[in-house]
Amino acid sequence: MTGPTTGTGTPLRVGLIGYGLAGSVFHAPLIAATEGLALDTVVTSNPERQQQARSEYPDVRIAATPDELFARADDELDLIVIASPNKTHVPLATAALKAGLPVVVDKPLAGTAAEARELAALADERGLLLSVFQNRRWDNDFLTLRKLIADGELGDVYRFESRFERWRPQLKGGWRESGDPTEIGGLLYDLGSHVVDQALVLFGPVTAVYAEADIRREGAATDDDTFIALTHESGVRSHLYVSATTAQLGPRFRVLGSKAGYVKYGLDPQEAALRDGLRPGGGGQWGAEPEELWGRVGAGESPVTGGGRPEPTLPGDYPAYYAAVAKALAAGGPNPVTALEAAAALDVLEAARRSALEKVTVTL
Prior knowledge:
The chain is α/β, with parallel strands linked by helices. It is built from 11 helices and 15 strands. Helix 8 (191-203) packs across helix 11. The chain has a 9-stranded mixed sheet with strand order 14-13-12-11-7-10-9-8-15.
């Protein structure tokens, strides 16, 4: 199979487990667009998804089960990517590591921080890469906010408000909305994995967690409207909202500092572009957004009415994640998202779940 190379010859061959939303929209296109990686095999038992994969990647091989993949993995593959349902992440990552292969796992890495740390220990023992796909570290607004903070534009940040809200009043069904705790469904572990990870990257470890988790939609069985409040060791307070029941969307970010604040509406355009079949490197500036969607920086003004100055949004860069994975495998570069970082986020998510159930503030 032909494909991009590392510059020294043969590309690293990738086996992708799962071809639902995560596998087909995010992982497969980004793997295929990454120099040094080649999408070799897709694992799915669904005939329609098998046909879809063959149509989108004519040279790809198909396996019906992970066992078929692992049976030939040691001499035919160089990396396993796990994009299957959440409850399969730990057993499949364990099997891949024991087969001697590096692994990328979609978020959340596991259902508990303890499981995540056990996987990290196994990867270390085997000397293998174990990385977690936290793609929203490369969202356009997050990259812009990191730059503003690093450049001192906001001063000392006091409060970080982050919203990942949607208006989806009708249930879609499936494991993500299942009330079975073994499925690891609900928004706390879905969108919450993103907003908590971003807060930890920006402001460091957390000392206290308070959360409210509600089930709003008729027939829903797991949380669909959740709020998380974090107190960081640094003194920053993060207020995080994830919801499927928001009829009027709030700002994606509202960040308040000693010198200025930053307010940004709208979601990074990369997911929508990937869903529409656009691909990195296909022309145009990947991840860019028009000027009218830029956030604003200022103090004592209302960005809604044009206060503050427009802040150009940096282009989003999901391709950077797999480029870093390829470099880590080929040249010993750093792991872009470690399992221990994922475990730290799971500490917070577990505390949030306990807080919402017991109506207490949880100290970490």
